[in-house]
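FAQ: What does the model actually see?

It sees only this:
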Amino acid sequence: MQEQRFDVPVTVKFGSPEQQKILRTAQDASDFLMNNWPGKRSPKHRAALQACHAVIDGGKPAMTARRAFMAAAREVDVVVTEKADV
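And it is asked to produce this:
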């Protein structure tokens, strides 16, 4: 089984009033995509969700999910930082 943890966590913003959340794993990213996504469910959103599930299922490295998530997150402007203060 592949490690789900991202090498570099991602901080995202969501909700009203605006909140921030640190995503450290493919599961965190998948949960955000399913439950807190602020924009349309575009092809990039779908690709990110599929990549997260591929990591969770153990078929792909976490970097794959992180890259796909970042592409989708930039599309809807939810990225605060690409590196969390841990």
